[in-house]
Amino acid sequence: MNTASVSLGASVSSQSRFMQLALAAFLGIFVMGFVGFSHIDAVHNAAHDYRHSMAFPCH
Amino acid sequence: MNLFRNVVFIAAIAGLVAGVILACMQAYATVPLILKAEVYEQAGGGHKHDHAAAPAAADTTAMSTAAPAGNAMSTAAPAPAEVTAPAKDEGWAPADGFERFAFSVLANIVTGIGFALILVAVSEFAGGIGNWRQGVFWGLAGFAVFTLAPGLGLPPELPAMPAADLLPRQIWWWATVAATAAGLGLIAFRKSLPLAILAVALIVAPHIVGAPQPDSFETAIPEGLHHQFVVAVTVTNLVFWLVLGAVVGVVRGRFTGTATSLRDSFA
Question: For B158, which of A9, A41, A52 is closest by C-beta distance?
Answer without folding.
Answer: A52
